[in-house]
Amino acid sequence: MSKTIKNVWNAHFTFDKFLEAHERARKRKGKKKEILLFELDLETNLSNIMEQIKKHTFSFGSYHEFTIYEPKKRVIKALPYKARVVHQWYVEEFIKPYMMPRFITHTYACLPLKGAHKAVKDLQKMMRAMKRKYSNYYVLKCDIKGYFYNINRNILFEIMKEKISDKELLYFTKKIIFDSPHEKGIPIENYTSQFFANIYLDKLDHYVKENLRVKYYIRYMDDFILLCKNKEEAKSLFEKMKRFVSEVLDLELNHKSKYYPSRLGINFCGYITYETHILVRKRSKKKMRKRIKYWNDAYQKNILNFKEVKMGWNAWLGHIHHANAYHLMNDYKSKIIFNQK
User: Fold this and answer.
1) Nearest to 129 by CA among 251, 49, 211, 215
2) 225 close to 268: Cβ distance less than 8 angstroms
3) Could you give the 3-state DSSP secondary structure of residue 112?
4) So what's the pLDDT on residue 256?
5) Taking the C-alpha atoms of 327, 332, 334 and 336 in order, what is their torsion angle to the nearest 10 degrees?
6) Would you state the pLDDT for residue 1?
7) Alpha carbon of 79 to those of 20, 83, 96, 156: distances in Å?
8) DSSP one-letter string for 241-271
9) Stated pTM of the model
10) Is 73 helix (H, G, I), strand (E, B) or coil?
């Protein structure tokens, strides 16, 4: 693979590619008013987008802001539909084929055939290897304070410049990165943001693997784990990670970042992982207890939506299926006072 991405723009700048991007962007959202209006004159709208991009006059439009509260409070910024089509096109045509193959093996967010469950399984394999080799080893667990909100877009663009020499692609990459009303951070809701966020910390990944030579390291977005042979190594690596994150990436580790004995298990990707077993995280159990209480109350008032119950219960079963949770499942099932139908 060449060191930089070059001479790729024209091959991907076609009407068919934008039509495919539209089909992906509208999935499961086809009845929304703005999508229906866009499709009334689909060919013209896509052609106009392409013409504007070609002439460097394309505008993504204004953000619509709203707040979500699950799993935690976040401000979401949503762009108009035409911008979401363009983001789909950019990610699928350039980020996935040219950037993602450069990632290290043990990063898992936004990647096909990986994800949180694969990350947890691979983490457990690493823990077992460390247990065999060192018996009592240490865990260094870190994440980034306010990650998406604190990404330095100038640094992000410099990272992309190191990888892209195609002039049109680089110009458009810059346009996407700096299309935000705020000085710092990238909007969580944008399809491009999760990939830019992954690319941003790819620099950290290579530092850990190539400079620090840490064998057992794993990352899921801004949550990352280093397995260390003893407390002294964990302390030393912790200081180096803090320094790199601050000086190179202009970020700060979350105050919860710490190192501790491996016997305490590792809270990662929704589970507590040990060498011998995997448990469901307390937050997930608490949330399901609240949902069951709500379902039972709604049932007694004869206002329960059984379809929503079935979807919610099956989703939770799918989550705990990856843990040692047989008794937990039966315990929670016994708390439901109605048949799920």
Assistant:
1) 215
2) yes
3) coil
4) 95
5) -160
6) 47
7) 19, 6, 21, 21
8) HHHHHHHTT---B-TT-EEEEGGG-EEETTE
9) 0.89
10) coil
* C-alpha distances in Å from residue 199, one per residue of 5, 10, 155: 15, 23, 11
Question: Which token pair is 301?
Answer: 């008032």
What per-residue confidence (pLDDT) applies to 110? 87
* Residue 290 CB contacts under 8 Å (≥ 6 apart), including other chains: none
Query: Backbone dihedral region of 64: left (phi > 0), alpha (psi from -120 to 50 degrees) or beta?
Result: beta
Q: Which structure tokens are listed for 206?
A: 């290579």
- 115: exposed, middle or buried (C-beta count within 10 Å: 0-12, 13-18, 19+)? middle
Per-residue pLDDT tens over the stretch 129-184: 999 999 999 999 999 999 999 999 999 999 999 999 999 999 999 999 999 777 78
CA–CA gap between residue 181 and residue 63 (Å, rounded): 9
Tell me which residue of 175, 154, 151 sits closest to 60, measured CA to CA.
175
Q: What is the pLDDT of residue 30?
A: 64
Cα–Cα distance for residue pair 251/29, rounded to 1 Å: 35
One-letter identity of residue 332: Y
Q: How far is CA 231 from the centre of its chain?
A: 30
Cis omega before residue 112 (within 30°)?
no
- Asked if 59 and 41 touch (Cβ cutoff 8 Å), the reply is no
Are 122 and 167 in contact by the 8 Å Cβ rule? The answer is no
**Which positions of the chain have pLDDT values less than 70?**
1-2, 30, 70-72, 74-75, 77, 340-341
Asked if residue 133 lies in contact with residue 228, where contact means CB atoms within 8 angstroms, the answer is no
Strand partners, 271: 268, 280
